[in-house]
């Protein structure tokens, strides 16, 4: 079932609530792949009903980013949602989600001035605004997010906590191609040569993970191992390489707690991200 109208999805949700059915929610920007499919399947397993939203959110794209060219294929997306067991797909137009004179903003400042937030000012304000709107419309019991966007997960968790939203945020593991590349809708931008070059992201992280498992605790040494590895690939250009506290996202010098190792790398013109967590 597909709906584009807020009033219609609210009516469906109201009927489910009357029956005391639990609701899982998977927010997406469409052009779905196996990573999204894994989120939907987990939501289906853990809830009576599952809503998937498909919405390319204009407020989280900067002026020179890829909003207009972001890949879209609604028919393929609907097929994947159906096969994964989603109960309903909510695919609103921007005009349905935003008023012309929209005046409200939501930000989680302490978590958004690092990593992707530092390089993409306003991005996470747009994410917080649209996710909070979807939460208000859908009122889910649980919402599912991929760990590939680790900073987004941290930001949404903090927003939910700070605003006393009664929603469980469920982070889900990164889904990878057989050769290790993290699944991403933006992988479709890559030429075959760039696709091969993109493998350097996961390879670099695996080297870092091995270094940490062997006992290295100086963040700079681990960072340099990642940077040297990425710089060995001619088509790769580093945006950032960071080791941060897994909860606060603060940069650390010595690894004495659970951390997030996060990278952003341009392969040609395509910006890709990847990460892993490491526990002491």
UniProtKB/TrEMBL annotation:
Give the residues the record marks as binding (R)-pantoate. 60, 152
GO cellular component terms given for this protein: cytosol
Q: Kindly list the places in or outside the cell where this protein is found, as annotated in its UniProt entry.
A: Cytoplasm
Q: Binding residues for ATP, per the UniProt record?
A: 29-36, 146-149, 175, 183-186
Q: Which residues bind beta-alanine?
A: 60
Top EC class of this enzyme: ligase
- Which CDD domains does the UniProt entry name for this protein? PanC (cd00560)
UniProt EC number:
6.3.2.1
Q: Which pathway does the record list?
A: Cofactor biosynthesis; (R)-pantothenate biosynthesis; (R)-pantothenate from (R)-pantoate and beta-alanine: step 1/1
- Determine if Flavoprotein is one of this entry's keywords: no
Catalytic function, reaction form: (R)-pantoate + beta-alanine + ATP = (R)-pantothenate + AMP + diphosphate + H(+)
Q: Which residues are responsible for catalysis?
A: 36 (proton donor)
Q: Which InterPro entries match?
A: Cyt_trans-like, Pantoate_ligase, Pantoate_ligase_C, Rossmann-like_a/b/a_fold
The primary location reported for this protein is cytoplasm
What does the entry give for GO biological process? pantothenate biosynthetic process
Which keywords belong to this entry? ATP-binding, Cytoplasm, Ligase, Nucleotide-binding, Pantothenate biosynthesis
* Family to which this protein belongs: Belongs to the pantothenate synthetase family.
Q: What does this protein do?
A: Catalyzes the condensation of pantoate with beta-alanine in an ATP-dependent reaction via a pantoyl-adenylate intermediate.
Q: Add the further remark from the entry.
A: The reaction proceeds by a bi uni uni bi ping pong mechanism.
HAMAP family recorded: PanC
> Subunit details for this protein?
Homodimer.
Name under which the protein is recorded:
Pantothenate synthetase
């Amino acid at each position: 079932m597909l709906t584009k109208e807020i009033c219609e999805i609210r009516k469906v949700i109201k009927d489910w609530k009357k029956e005391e059915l639990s609701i899982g929610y998977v927010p997406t920007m469409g052009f779905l792949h196996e990573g999204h499919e894994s989120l939907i399947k987990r939501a289906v397993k853990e809830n009576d009903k599952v809503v998937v939203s498909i919405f390319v959110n204009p407020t989280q794209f900067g002026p020179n980013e890829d909003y207009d060219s972001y890949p879209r294929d609604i028919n393929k997306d609907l097929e994947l949602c159906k096969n994964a067991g989603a109960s309903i797909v909510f695919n609103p137009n921007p005009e349905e989600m935003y008023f012309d004179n929209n005046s409200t903003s939501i930000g989680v400042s302490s978590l958004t001035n690092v990593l992707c937030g530092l390089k993409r000012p306003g991005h996470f304000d747009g994410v917080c605004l649209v996710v909070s709107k979807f939460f208000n419309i859908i009122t889910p019991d649980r919402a599912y997010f991929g760990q590939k966007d680790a900073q987004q997960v941290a930001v949404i968790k903090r927003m939910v906590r700070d605003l006393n939203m009664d929603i469980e945020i469920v982070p889900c593991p990164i889904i990878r191609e057989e050769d290790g590349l993290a699944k991403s809708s933006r992988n479709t931008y890559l030429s075959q040569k760039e696709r091969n070059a993109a493998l350097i992201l996961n390879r670099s992280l695996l080297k870092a993970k091995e270094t940490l498992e062997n006992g290295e605790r100086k963040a700079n040494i681990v960072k340099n191992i990642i940077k040297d590895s990425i710089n060995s690939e001619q088509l790769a250009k580093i945006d950032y390489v960071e080791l941060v506290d897994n909860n606060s996202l603060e940069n650390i010098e010595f690894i004495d707690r659970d951390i997030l190792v996060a990278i952003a790398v341009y392969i040609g013109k395509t910006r890709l991200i990847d990460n892993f967590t490491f526990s002491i």
